[in-house]
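Demo today. Your pick:
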Amino acid sequence: MPKIPNVIKMIDHTNIERNAIEKDIIKTCQEAKTYGFRGVDVNPQWVGLVKKELKGTSIKVVVLIDPPMGLSHHSKRVEMCKQAKKDGADELDVVINVIDIKYERYDEVLADLKEICKILPTKVIIGSGYLTDEEIKKASEIVKKAGAFCVKTATEKDPLDHFELKEKARHLQMMAKAAPGLKIKASAKIKTLKDALMMVEAGADIIGTSSSVEIAKAYKASQKRKLK
C-alpha cells in the first residue's frame, strides 16, 4: 500500500466567511494550532487578530486579496497588500484580474502582479473555473514571470468553480506544466481526505480548505489503521 502523504502540513486552514465574527476566527486559529496546519487564510480585516493568535507558532498568516475576480484598481490592490503586511500577514493570496486575462491584457496583468509580489511572498489565484485551458496556461506563465512563489486554482467562494474535482486535478497538471518550479495550491470544493489526496496526486503542494479539521481527523484515523 502506498504511503499517504501528510496532508495536514499542506493545509491552509481557511475562514473567509463574510459573516465570521471574532470568536469564529479565534476558533479557526485554535484549530490550526491543534492540528498543525500550514497556515490560516482569512480576509484582510482579521490579519492582526490571526497574527496575535498564532504568535509563537510557525503557522503562516495568509490573507485573501480582492476576490472573486481581482477587479479592484491596481492602486487599491497594492494598498490592500501593503496594509496586510503592516497588519502582520506572512503571505498574500491575491486574485488575478480575470477579466484582463479574458481580454488578453497580459501586460497589465503582469505589471500589477509584479508590484504586488514585491510586497510579500505571493500566491496568485487564477480563477481556473472561469478560464479556458489556454487561459489557464497563459495565466500560470504570467504568475511565474511576476515573481510569485505559487499559483492557485480558485477561492472557496469562486461562483463558477463548481467543476468536478477530476477537472480541477487536470487544471493543476496544466498549471504545473506551464509554470515549472512554482508551488501549486488547490482550493475550492475540497471537502474530504480523498479529495485532498486527489489534489496532491495531481501535483498540489498546498491545499486550501475550510474542511481542514475533518480532513485532519480522517488522515490521523488512516494512520492509526496502518499501525494495527
